[in-house]
Write a structure and sequence with these properties.
The chain has 444 residues and is mostly helical. It has a single domain (56-435), classed as MFS general substrate transporter like domains (Growth Hormone, Chain: A), CATH 1.20.1250. Helix content is 82%, strand content 0%. α5 crosses α14, α6 packs antiparallel against α11 (304-314) and α12 runs antiparallel to α15 (405-422). The longest helix is centred in the first third of the chain and has 67 residues, at 2-68. The N and C termini lie far apart (78 Å). The chain crosses the membrane at residues 54-72, 92-111, 118-138, 144-171, 183-204, 210-229, 254-278, 284-305, 317-337, 343-365, 377-399, 405-428.
Length: 444
């Protein structure tokens, strides 16, 4: 009987062990399956992020293409819509649009943050900008004067800045590193400007109004593409008053804003005075001027993404401060170049130096604010950037008209060097390795 009980006990233990082993195997299998499922979902998420980054980059690219189409043949286009000859009419033509950029950049960002949506505003901005381009092109046939054309440019700028600023904000909303995402934005900006310069020059050589119609078509396509991107805007956003108060209360933002201002000043300078200088000093047509401008924008675009990723690893200080000093020196050198070949080579150097500054500067914005305030912070950055473009147009137009091209190049390059030297200490303070991918102490 004892032996029988012992056998039943051992049989019971063996049964329990068998059940236990089966449960363990089941648990291990389920855990492995769950881990595999999470891995698949993570991989799909990463692929989705990369795809969204590409699509948003194309939207930013499209907005820049539409703008830069106008630059190589700007004098002919402005004359065709009633602006007359000389450098001042093109100056006001560009200033009208960028004045609206200044006035409406933050408004779009605040609206987007407060409602927690991005995509609808990008689409509306792109389509509205396209409509304004068509209206400007039709102005001569409708008997509208240059004053009405300038008003239409203001309306178009109010729409276009919404598409541009919020498309960059949607890139900021993505995971993967601020430097990488802003590098994608910078690459899109540079490639858009490069292609826009080349194609815009060819279009202007055929018909001075074609760059306007081409820009409208590209903006419509950009709006359609933006509509396919998932909206990652923060759910519910922040109250408008809170956003405005927080933007004002973050003094660290003034550092990237200041660099954004001067960097865009030089871009505005080259868009107006740089093109005019190349055409006048070396006697080239609009098509050649567009190709020449692309010598700056192509290296500027090609290096943005790798430099943005590099700044995630080494910090923002060296790309921003060192790049700005070299950038300013190269700008002055272009104005001193005695031959077209040397000026063209120096424009390549300007593009390389500019590529070190732009993505790291934009990434600084995301470093010093929480994600819920990205749109408002980038809206503020674009206000300063648009003010810089305005200043660049004015420096390029007014200083050139009064003192000549060399003085204008000295002012533009000197300002870039000055901001780098003056703000170097502040950059060192907020660009510590521990703050590269999140909010800094100053930024909360």
């Amino acid at each position: 009987m004892v032996a029988s009980r012992s056998r039943r006990s051992w049989q019971g233990l063996e049964t329990d062990n068998l059940v236990g082993r089966r449960r363990v195997r089941t648990l291990v299998t389920e855990t492995a399956a769950g881990a595999e499922s999470e891995g698949v979902q993570s991989a799909r998420g990463a692929r989705g992020t990369r795809l969204d980054r590409v699509r948003l980059g194309l939207v930013v690219w499209g907005v820049l293409v539409s703008q830069v189409f106008l630059y190589p043949g700007l004098e002919e286009t402005v004359a065709a819509v009633g602006g007359g000859d000389g450098i001042l009419a093109p100056t006001w033509f560009l200033v009208a649009e960028f004045a609206a950029f200044v006035a409406f950049a933050v408004a779009w960002g605040v609206l987007s943050d407060s409602l927690g949506r991005r995509v609808p505003f990008v689409v509306v901005g792109a389509v509205g900008g396209a409509a304004s381009y068509v209206a400007v092109a039709l102005a001569p046939s409708l008997g509208l004067g240059f004053g009405v054309v300038l008003a239409l440019r203001v309306v178009g700028g109010a729409f276009t800045i919404g598409a541009f600023s919020l498309a960059i904000t949607m890139l900021m909303d993505l995971s993967g590193g601020n430097g990488r995402n802003m590098g994608a934005a910078g690459t899109a900006i540079g490639l858009g400007a490069a292609l826009g310069a080349i194609v815009g020059g060819q279009l202007a050589a055929r018909d001075p109004l074609l760059p306007l119609y081409g820009g409208a078509a590209v903006l419509v396509a950009a709006g359609a593409l933006a509509a396919t991107v998932p909206d990652r805007g923060g759910g519910g956003g922040l109250p408008v008053g809170t956003v405005l108060t927080r933007v004002r209360s973050r003094p660290a933002l003034l550092v990237p804003y200041a660099f954004g201002y001067v960097d865009r000043l030089t871009a505005g300078f080259f868009a107006l005075a740089g093109v005019a200088y190349v055409r006048e000093a070396f006697d080239v047509d609009a098509a050649t001027a567009g190709l020449t401008l692309a010598l700056f924008f192509l290296p500027f675009a090609a290096l943005q993404y790798p430099v943005g990723s590099l700044s995630d690893r080494i910090g923002r200080y060296v790309p921003v401060v060192g790049g700005s000093i070299l950038y300013g020196v190269a700008i002055v050198a272009v104005g001193l170049a005695p031959t077209y070949a040397l000026a063209a080579a120096l424009l390549v150097a300007v593009g390389v130096c500019g590529a070190f500054v732009a993505p790291a500067t934009m990434a600084l914005v995301t470093d010093v604010v929480p994600a819920s305030e990205n749109a408002s912070a980038m809206g503020g950055f674009n206000v300063f950037g648009s003010l810089g473009m305005l200043s660049g147009f004015l420096v390029g137009g007014l200083v050139t008209a009064e003192y000549g091209f060399l003085a204008a190049f000295l002012v533009a390059g000197g300002l870039e060097i000055t901001i780098a030297v003056v703000a170097s200490t502040a950059i060192a303070r907020i660009a510590k390795p521990s703050t590269r991918s999140g909010a800094s102490p100053d930024g909360g």
